[in-house]
Specification:
Elements: E1 6-11, H1 22-30, E2 33-36, H2 42-45, E3 53-56, E4 59-60, E5 63-64, H3 68-80, E6 84-89, H4 99-108, E7 113-116, H5 121-128, E8 142-146, H6 159-162, E9 168-172, H7 178-187, E10 195-200, E11 208-213, H8 217-224, E12 230-234, H9 241-244, H10 249-253, H11 257-270
Parallel strand pairs: 1-6, 1-7, 2-3, 2-6, 8-9
Antiparallel strand pairs: 4-5, 9-12, 10-11, 10-12
């Protein structure tokens, strides 16, 4: 009879499969079953070998394939069947990924688990948009918040603390509450001219972004027709995006991303750079 298996709580990163950690990729290759979220990109799912069972448990506002309680019970049931389970989550399991809730449930039920960090959207999507989260003289810290509370609870944040223009503010899952968030930040004293960035499908060929200010980012998002998943970055470092924007999703989508990068390197070498 098989003994108890194990659950690996694995961060898939924001979408680009090349941002998967080596450990995450290795565990995917050896898994018996992968339980994955809606935000795991198709390109990363393509890294799962054929023959490995896949179970989609994705959640979005108002629509759940499985409730969190059902997901917890599923992980226990699979592990007790002796399976090696990869619980694959977009971004990082412990940053707005509910990975800690699942880990606590597994511990209470005697199921072995480990945690594989992933590249979180705040770091990856901002970098792919040309926005450093910190920059000497512009930002000395980073604040990460979610714009979507559990069970659609009202947003209750420390608006005065978040309005500190000496740090960079990153808002996960903030599309539906963006207008309220900007209104509260302005009311807490943040200047309307503070630079703001919104990124949809960051790090993937479908990446789209708009740059504006706290005073007009809501209108810019609406005009551009951006949707979820949306990451919003607010702070003085966003002004650097116009100089540091390097990612060209159109070229990547056409299969020319790597070739274009190699071409640029070759040109630089030819010029002696």
């Amino acid at each position: 009879m098989k003994g108890t298996g194990i659950v690996h709580l694995v961060g898939a990163g924001p979408g680009d499969p090349e941002l998967l950690t080596r450990k995450a990729h290795r565990l995917l290759q050896g898994a018996d079953v992968v339980v994955y979220d809606r935000l795991v990109s198709p390109a990363i799912l393509d890294e799962i070998p054929s023959g490995v069972s896949r179970i989609h448990v994705g959640k979005r506002s108002g629509h759940h394939a499985l409730s969190q309680d059902e997901i917890n019970a599923l992980l226990v049931r699979l592990a007790r069947g002796g399976r090696e389970v990869v619980r694959l989550k977009g971004g990082d399991p412990f940053i707005f990924g509910r990975g800690s809730e699942e880990a606590l449930y597994l511990r209470r039920h005697g199921i072995p688990f480990d945690v594989v960090p992933g590249v979180t959207a705040a770091a990856a999507c901002s970098a792919y948009a040309g926005v450093p989260l910190t920059h000497r003289g512009l930002s000395r810290g980073v604040q990460l918040v979610t714009g979507h509370f559990r069970d659609d609870e009202p947003i209750d944040l420390d608006w005065h603390g978040l309005a500190d223009t000496r740090s960079t503010l990153v808002i996960y899952m903030g599309l539906s509450s963006l207008a309220r968030i900007c209104r509260e930040l302005l009311g807490a004293g943040m200047p309307a001219t503070t630079p703001a960035l919104a990124v949809q499908h960051g790090t993937t060929p479908a990446q789209r972004q708009v740059v504006g200010t706290v005073g007009d980012i809501v209108e810019r998002v609406e005009e551009a027709g951006l949707g979820a998943p949306l990451l919003v970055v607010i702070g003085e470092t966003v002004a650097l995006a116009r100089q540091l924007d390097w990612f060209h999703p159109d070229a990547m989508a056409a299969g020319g991303f790597l070739e274009e990068a190699i071409s640029h390197v070759a040109q630089d070498r030819h010029r002696g750079i």
